[in-house]
């Protein structure tokens, strides 16, 4: 046997399911195996092999005793398998092939069946069977001969051979005839598989206390960020500026030598989905309610999200310094939503505070620590890390950036990680103050660099043993997502929508959203879905960060969807494919313009009079500093032509970083009116100098659209 083998190879050799082998190695040998891709070697491997050899020896002995009892007169002949041919006893002759199979190292199946029976006893004898299974596999699972199973099936009127598939319902009837109980085997998609294979429950003795993770929720303008700013200014060395929160942020504060991790979740209704993810990642929710305003719609949403996540709520009644403040009215309104103050005989802690003066802030923090102590929050720091993606975006300078909240284990700089369809090695890691760190323990937030793609906020992230394993899981997740996208249904595109509504044909509008920042995806998607009415359902079938690519066009083609982009542009290949397949791409720089267009379409009023025509593209091959003119780009026109009159977008990784006019155009030393395809020239942009080699200039113009 090799010096080291993967668990799935060991399972295959012993005819066991990989999941069963992982469970066996953890429970019987205490090896702390993470997944079927983990390696086993050295003395551990010898012990495991000895374990299976011992099971086989016991099986052989058991068979021998049985034969000796049934065939006393031939007992001597049963001691060695090579004497079996001299024995004329019919029963023994029937057993001879089985014993020969054992000699030929095919005993693994028998020992697997024996081991399976032991496992079944632990699981009350219930055997897991997939929805469809071939007869031979089914017979092995229930420990019966294939011929017996086939006989039972014939009795049920089912003619099935050894390799034919049978349905679970048929298998269930056969199993009952044999006195066996079966249940439907759990199936996992590629995302769930990551959790099943890469996460596990820790032993009680390995758990230690961890800091609580607190989510601050509430209605917009009720003071969530102000309270956090007040806490940070007194408890953190470097404070942060306040303002309207647009993305989920994370920070750590020290209270009486104890740490608390805070998640500051947005309050605007467009970010409801982000706030839900914040609730799911936390242990305690601080619900901020303004004493002068009372319970508002988003207050109720926050309560529902916290309850759905099963986390306790501590109410901070803010703005008590105002003359019109009425904390009792707030308590009364909260009672209508199931939150009863301790003072009024309930079990919800409510603390009057003022983010402006700082009154009650210390009391609020003490109550949070008290609730955390009661919950006995624990985690194992000495294992590979498991966490949740709090926020993710594409940074023009640093690539894919993700904010991670570590939930189990310790995350280290240099770790290989996988989250959904993104994987990579952590190149750098920063704490909530932006300082470089080497590791993050349970309950600690960290910003990481090094992922292959922008992660999905709300997805789990797992540290794994090597790059190959990370890529394997990510590739399977990517394939799963592609398959899910292609299953999406759609009916029309935005431009023709109003006429279809008038004809009573349109029932659903599918939209694909691409943006430059992850938070915008969620905000746009939620806002568009809310436009649905009784006649038309708006569905965002896909949303992601980055430029519009050919795969987006393929998805739109399969689902007949409209593509909406914010501060991003399509690749040249995507433009050509969209044109060939009549796929509509609409790009915006302001959310509300897109919402207005879709809203007009739904109401049957969309009637665009102008359309954008892309004239050509040029690639920046070099840059020059020209006195009095700034930076001039040396370009090669790769598609179409670039007229001097055209408007220009400067694209970097298909993200729009400039949109304006051409200030100068030259062919060699002479001014030019146009650069044709395949020619080189110089282009200067109006009041813009941040041009880099590899950037793409896209020339376009707005032309009046002919009406049908």
Describe this structure in words.
By secondary structure, the protein is an alpha+beta fold. Helix content is 34%, strand content 29%. It has 20 helices and 35 strands. It has a 6-stranded mixed sheet with strand order 9-10-8-11-12-13, sandwiched between helices. Strands 15-16-21-19-18-22 form a 6-stranded antiparallel barrel. Helix 1 (7-13) crosses helix 2 (18-29), helix 3 (42-70) packs across helix 5 (108-122) and helix 9 (190-198) packs antiparallel against helix 15 (467-486). It starts with a strand and ends with a strand. The model is unreliable at 75-123, 236-248, 267-277 and 488-492 (pLDDT under 50).
Please specify the SSE layout and strand pairing.
Blueprint: E1 4-6, H1 7-13, H2 18-29, E2 39-41, H3 42-70, H4 90-103, H5 108-122, E3 126-129, E4 132-134, H6 135-142, H7 146-155, E5 165-167, H8 168-177, E6 181-184, H9 190-198, E7 208-209, E8 213-218, H10 224-235, E9 249-255, E10 258-264, H11 272-280, E11 284-290, H12 297-309, E12 313-318, H13 327-335, E13 349-352, H14 361-375, E14 378-379, E15 386-395, E16 399-408, E17 411-412, E18 416-419, E19 422-430, E20 439-440, E21 445-451, E22 460-464, H15 467-486, H16 497-502, E23 508-515, H17 518-529, E24 537-545, H18 550-559, E25 562-566, H19 572-580, E26 585-588, H20 591-602, E27 610-626, E28 630-640, E29 642-643, E30 647-652, E31 655-667, E32 670-671, E33 674-675, E34 680-685, E35 696-704
Parallel strand pairs: 3-6, 8-10, 8-11, 11-12, 12-13, 23-24, 23-25, 25-26
Antiparallel strand pairs: 1-2, 4-5, 7-14, 9-10, 15-16, 15-22, 16-21, 17-20, 18-19, 18-22, 19-21, 27-28, 27-35, 28-34, 29-33, 30-31, 30-35, 31-32, 31-34
Helix pairs in contact: 1-2, 3-5, 6-7, 9-15, 11-12, 18-19
């Amino acid at each position: 046997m090799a010096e080291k083998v993967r668990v799935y190879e060991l399972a295959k050799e012993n005819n066991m399911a990989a999941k069963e082998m992982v469970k066996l190695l953890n429970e019987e040998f205490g090896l702390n195996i993470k997944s079927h891709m983990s390696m086993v070697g050295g003395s551990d491997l010898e012990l495991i092999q000895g374990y299976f050899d011992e099971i086989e020896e016991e099986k052989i002995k058991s068979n021998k005793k049985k034969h000796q009892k049934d065939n006393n007169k031939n007992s001597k002949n049963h001691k060695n398998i090579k004497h079996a041919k001299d024995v004329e006893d019919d029963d023994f002759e029937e057993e001879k092939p089985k014993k020969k199979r054992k000699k030929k190292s095919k005993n693994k199946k028998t020992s697997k069946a024996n081991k399976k029976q032991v496992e079944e006893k632990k699981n009350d004898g219930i055997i897991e069977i997939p929805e469809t299974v071939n007869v031979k596999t089914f017979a092995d699972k229930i420990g019966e001969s294939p011929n017996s199973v086939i006989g039972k099936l014939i009795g049920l009127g089912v003619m099935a051979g050894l390799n034919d598939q049978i349905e679970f319902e048929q298998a269930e009837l056969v199993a009952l005839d044999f006195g066996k109980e079966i249940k439907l085997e759990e199936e996992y998609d590629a995302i769930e598989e990551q959790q099943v294979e890469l996460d596990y429950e820790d032993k009680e003795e390995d758990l230690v206390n961890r800091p609580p993770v607190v989510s601050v929720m509430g209605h917009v303008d009720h003071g969530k960020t102000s309270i956090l700013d007040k806490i940070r200014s007194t408890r953190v060395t470097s404070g942060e500026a306040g303002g309207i929160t647009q993305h989920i942020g994370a920070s750590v504060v020290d209270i009486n030598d104890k740490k608390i991790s805070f998640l500051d979740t947005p309050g605007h209704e467009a970010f409801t989905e982000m706030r839900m993810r914040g609730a799911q990642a936390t242990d305690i929710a601080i619900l901020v309610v303004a004493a002068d305003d009372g319970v508002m719609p988003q207050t109720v949403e926050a309560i529902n999200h916290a309850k759905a996540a099963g986390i306790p709520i501590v109410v901070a009644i803010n703005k008590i310094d105002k003359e019109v403040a009425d904390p009792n009215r707030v308590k009364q309104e909260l009672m209508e939503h199931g939150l009863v103050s301790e003072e009024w005989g309930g079990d919800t802690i409510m603390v009057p505070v003022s983010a402006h003066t700082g009154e009650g802030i210390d009391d609020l923090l003490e109550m949070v620590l008290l609730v955390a102590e009661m919950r006995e929050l624990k985690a194992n720091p000495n294992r590979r890390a498991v966490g949740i993606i709090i926020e993710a975006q594409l940074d023009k300078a640093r690539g894919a950036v993700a904010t991670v909240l570590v939930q189990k284990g310790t995350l280290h700089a240099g770790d290989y990680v996988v989250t959904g369809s993104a994987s990579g090695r952590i190149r750098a890691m920063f704490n909530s103050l932006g300082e470089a760190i080497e590791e993050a323990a349970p309950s600690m937030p960290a910003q990481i660099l090094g992922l292959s793609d922008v992660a999905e906020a709300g997805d789990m992230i797992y540290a794994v043993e090597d790059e190959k394993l990370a890529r394997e899981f990510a590739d399977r997740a990517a394939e799963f997502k592609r398959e899910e996208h292609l299953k999406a249904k759609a009916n029309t595109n935005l431009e023709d929508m109003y006429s279809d509504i008038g004809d009573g044909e349109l029932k659903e509008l599918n939209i694909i959203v691409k943006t430059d920042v992850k938070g915008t995806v969620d905000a746009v998607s939620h806002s568009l879905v809310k436009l649905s009415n009784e006649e038309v359902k708006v569905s965002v079938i896909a949303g992601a960060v980055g430029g519009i690519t050919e795969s987006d066009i393929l998805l739109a083609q399969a689902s007949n969807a409209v593509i909406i982009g914010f501060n991003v542009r399509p690749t040249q290949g995507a433009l050509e494919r969209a044109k060939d397949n009549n796929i509509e791409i609409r790009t915006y720089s302001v959310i509300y313009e897109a919402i207005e267009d879709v809203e007009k379409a739904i109401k049957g009023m969309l009637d665009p009079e102008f359309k954008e025509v892309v004239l050509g593209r040029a690639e920046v091959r070099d840059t020059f500093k020209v006195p009095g003119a700034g930076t001039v780009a040396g370009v090669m026109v790769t598609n179409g032509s670039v007229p001097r009159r055209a408007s220009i977008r400067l694209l970097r990784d298909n993200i729009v970083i400039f949109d304006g006019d051409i200030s100068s155009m030259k062919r060699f030393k002479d001014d030019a009116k146009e650069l044709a395809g395949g020619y080189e020239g110089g282009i200067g942009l109006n009041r813009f100098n941040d041009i880099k080699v590899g950037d793409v200039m896209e020339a376009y113009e707005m032309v009046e659209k002919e009406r049908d």
